[in-house]
Amino acid sequence: MITILKPGTTEERRNQLTRWFESQGLQVHAAIGPEQTVLGLIGDTSGIDAEMLRLLDIVESVSEISDPFKSANRKFHPEDTIVDVCGAKCGGGNFAVIAGPCSVENPAQIKEVATRVKASGATMLRGGAFKPRTSPYDFQGMRAEGIELLLEAKRETGLPIVTEIMNANHLPLFEEVDVIQVGARNMQNFELLKELGKTDKTILLKRGLANTLKELLMSAEYIMAEGNENIILCERGIRTFETYTRNTLDLSAIPVLHNLTHLPVVVDPSHGTGHANLVETMAMAAAAAGADGIMIEVHNDPAKALCDGPQSLTPDQFHRLMAKVSKVREAVTCD
Amino acid sequence: MITILKPGTTEERRNQLTRWFESQGLQVHAAIGPEQTVLGLIGDTSGIDAEMLRLLDIVESVSEISDPFKSANRKFHPEDTIVDVCGAKCGGGNFAVIAGPCSVENPAQIKEVATRVKASGATMLRGGAFKPRTSPYDFQGMRAEGIELLLEAKRETGLPIVTEIMNANHLPLFEEVDVIQVGARNMQNFELLKELGKTDKTILLKRGLANTLKELLMSAEYIMAEGNENIILCERGIRTFETYTRNTLDLSAIPVLHNLTHLPVVVDPSHGTGHANLVETMAMAAAAAGADGIMIEVHNDPAKALCDGPQSLTPDQFHRLMAKVSKVREAVTCD
Amino acid sequence: MITILKPGTTEERRNQLTRWFESQGLQVHAAIGPEQTVLGLIGDTSGIDAEMLRLLDIVESVSEISDPFKSANRKFHPEDTIVDVCGAKCGGGNFAVIAGPCSVENPAQIKEVATRVKASGATMLRGGAFKPRTSPYDFQGMRAEGIELLLEAKRETGLPIVTEIMNANHLPLFEEVDVIQVGARNMQNFELLKELGKTDKTILLKRGLANTLKELLMSAEYIMAEGNENIILCERGIRTFETYTRNTLDLSAIPVLHNLTHLPVVVDPSHGTGHANLVETMAMAAAAAGADGIMIEVHNDPAKALCDGPQSLTPDQFHRLMAKVSKVREAVTCD
Amino acid sequence: MITILKPGTTEERRNQLTRWFESQGLQVHAAIGPEQTVLGLIGDTSGIDAEMLRLLDIVESVSEISDPFKSANRKFHPEDTIVDVCGAKCGGGNFAVIAGPCSVENPAQIKEVATRVKASGATMLRGGAFKPRTSPYDFQGMRAEGIELLLEAKRETGLPIVTEIMNANHLPLFEEVDVIQVGARNMQNFELLKELGKTDKTILLKRGLANTLKELLMSAEYIMAEGNENIILCERGIRTFETYTRNTLDLSAIPVLHNLTHLPVVVDPSHGTGHANLVETMAMAAAAAGADGIMIEVHNDPAKALCDGPQSLTPDQFHRLMAKVSKVREAVTCD
Predict the structure, then answer these.
(1) Hey, of A3, A28, A32, A61, which one would you mutate to test binding to chain D, going by the most D CBs within 10 A of its CB?
(2) DSSP alpha helices (H): ranges in A74-225?
(3) Which residues of chain C neighbour A331 with C-beta distances below 8 Å?
(4) For each successive 10 residues of chain B (335 residues), what is the average pLDDT?
(5) N or C end: fewer C-beta atoms under 10 angstroms in chain A?
(6) What are the backbone angles phi and psi of residue C60, rounded to the nearest 5°?
(7) ipTM of the shown complex
(8) Domains in chain C, please, with CATH?
(9) How much is the pTM?
(10) Residues of chain A found within 8 Å of residue B186, distances taken between Cβ atoms
(11) Chain B to chain C Cβ contacts (< 8 Å)
(12) Between C and D, how many residue pairs show a Cβ–Cβ distance under 8 A?
């Protein structure tokens, strides 16, 4: 880490900062020039908060030679992580297809959707039991009962299940869940991340609506720092000024994350666009950009399902999407 | 609530939607024209999720005659809410001054700061015990011990205390805390909000980094829907493209919120700007804009305190700020 | 157009507004209820500024049944527009490949790049002569001389040329230019758009850094309203909070624009990402999302070219990209 | 300027970059360590584009010791610039009050408004003749005739006039105009800025909707680099995700700009909020934050004026605002 001091910094202030660095166990190499002073810090700087340092009134700039994320960093773990969920793999050339309804509604619905998406090639079943809603007056999901219905659908189809957690206290209910999803609004719920880090579940971590990729990786780091390295990152659209789409799907996140981390990256074009008629196209684009999987909302009767309607595909539309996505994957993976 | 259907919507689809509205207990008045159809919904529409409705493929637009927030709505509660924290009032003409360090560090620090800010006119003491940090490797606060030190400072100075919660499981530790703060990153941690709604503590709810004022009010609504109406809203800056400031303090939030809600609104210029040399000016501007209080970081030795340094004032600077803010308040409140 | 008035609007105010609408040549159908009043406007509402109307204190909401863009609207022109630039087509299944250096630097450079990109399959040559730079102290381009060099390269290779205009006064210099580019910062330079609308040149219109797709279409409308319908829209990344990429390429713009307009849409992954190592991947994703073309920066010596370096490809890299993009196009266009 | 190279940069690449710096007339001091290399650049670095440099694949980071703006920089010009417009001063303790209608509509309107705002203490008259509108079908202003009417109002009241330019070709029409406004959408219309730099008019430069303060200062620099130093900067709100206000007024821009530049800073709360009922409060806040002036839309019949209505004050409301703002100014400037 390199800290450049502002011109005019007094010797006293510089020494004060130097002593503070030393008290943190770092060696400080100072290059003191007439115009400016550069402090090179040698040792384990992972405990230094560069953001805070940068805000000190005597500091001109801070360069972090090393990224603040360690466990997620590809530099220290060059091979792709392959997450294996009961045989359904994601990463390292394995493409995961996670499909299912926005919300679990009743036994017939979830079973039919599960059967249909499996037949079309889905490798995991998704379905919301606990639903994060902006309004306390909106439907909050079937909760524990929803998880039960997902498990039944799993027993019937063999598909591993993915569902969202909103509260670490609910963890006992997730004992048989295969993949625990952390939603966009909880991406920086650090206490929840820590608790998930103590489990051995696969965690599907969604990017927050206005968060950077570095912040996403730091949140993955919270889970990994507690010992759980089974993480799938998920790009699901960010908030921008555009209004035709619900969010703006950032597909460049895929190659950028592949450069920075060994963790697999899936894309959710359903939430990322908010419109059923954009899902197929954006799923194809995600595959072309090298995604390790896609997450698609499918409902057996989108017209009836108020919650899922606008962005859910019918099973037939999903079947067609799978064929198209396969063609794109063939085109981009063959050599 | 008014729903306008797209041109070309079939009768079948329109009837389907109409029946669904009716199944939700609403009366539907349809004005069917050659070009478009307008459905007027009469009854309690609070259970209808307008956002979802808007996304249906047959829906052109939705007008919410009534705001989605009820308990927080000034329309149903025209008088200002005055929150009373052990005698320190906020709202309805009462100006709260919440001051103290970013983090509680040790007994001497918190006591000295508490004594100094009280002498300058602060009405509550703030101090972080649980710290939300982007990196798991950064200092996470003194946690339970920090709360103990705040309580000691309270016993000594009489100042009620304000400190942040990050996990509903920690609530037992907050039993003697006067005001529980919900940080920006947890503004939409709906499970936490629900739990706080079951307490009778005053909740200081900070606006999220990329959240709208409507979303802030919906989060307040989560707390109020559970029965707790002791809420102070806090504007603390939003994420924009500007880089000279850490966030962009949105002072128009003050008059807008005063129009929409009866809850008091305080402003945090320390986090809102990230620079000590901007805090006094923005505190004065907040007072001029009619804020019901300010929240200021004060540290007895900002130069030493890496965490607080860049945006913390010294007790002397805080004293000066108080004099300036008082003058502005006199100018705007006299008539 | 539907205007819903706020509850409590006086009859006098309502009549005032009604008379104003009538003075604009519209018929007003009022549905006056106890709770609210709906004014239906019949006639040519293209002269009504809905945004302004919405801000009136008596107006609850405004629904624009018809989009504010007319000439660009697919509803009135269902077939894809195919822009033909000296035989190089864009739109309606024709894929344009616009390649070349960021800036024209000297005769040898532009000729070599032109020859190389043509050999790899580019259909047009790009090169900046007038360069919009944030700082007045940065290189502003070779200007008139740069256009001369582009025309020489065109004579040699037969590739039509694309270059940016910054000032309507420069139009005489663009007489032989085939495609005139309007840069992101000039997307709402309405006076320039009007002048370009009076020419018969093909205009490549880039989306502004923080502009919506509707605003982009309204800018196209400025050109078309003057009579010039030869327009290619270009997505080149928008400003977001992400810092790993220079901008965030919004690929969902492709299917959204294809729904809204008949004009062709090309994608610029070079500016859209700012990093050479992301260009190939995002070009493939753009092709998968149905783009009508791509715009790629290519330099014969990126390492030397300070301006182009970071995001320019070498001719060899461009050749490889062309092969990859072709495979993706085959996969998505075959049926 | 300090350039830090990435670990693993080859000697060849480093030498190549070093030679390039030298060819730009700079001395390069290299500190080559085992982990990284720091290049210190000495000399006039104003010609170096740090943004481009930062994007080079071998560059880790770039620190600009010196700001890229020179003429506008307070470091080289510590005293406040006082702009004098026919005796109406702005900056250095002088508070400008620029008031008038959004658009000039007819002789009676502009004269009445001018007379009324002068009586309440306005120091300059504003009024739009050329109107930048998102849609080509919306009213584009009275153009040349509008300027004539402004000049008449000036003759009658003695108030200097402020009006917007959209095209450098229109400059002859602005010969008698006192202050030429550059609107938000033209902030980076560099060709226009250059032309204005060649005049001796006072330029009121508005911040773009998604532009940083550094970009605003670079645009001022474009004008100053041509010799015109009579510039007033204007904060008029930036685009954010908030929807209750039309834009988000960034009042922290005032103290930040005062730190960075000697140029005066005025605030436009009318466009900055888009709602008449927020203008007074935000004008008071702007005064408290140290603004050198305010710009307020006033119309003699806001209810009739569709364009001005929502954000315009009546002359009476403006009179009241002036009294309130004066009180705030007294409170903050007395010492």
Answers:
(1) A61
(2) 107-120, 144-157, 190-197, 213-225
(3) 327-328, 330-331
(4) 83 87 82 74 76 78 76 90 97 98 94 98 97 86 96 98 96 98 97 97 97 96 96 97 94 97 98 95 98 96 65 95 97 80
(5) C
(6) -80, -50
(7) 0.86
(8) 2-63 (3.30.70.1140), 74-333 (3.20.20.70)
(9) 0.87
(10) 189
(11) 32
(12) 134
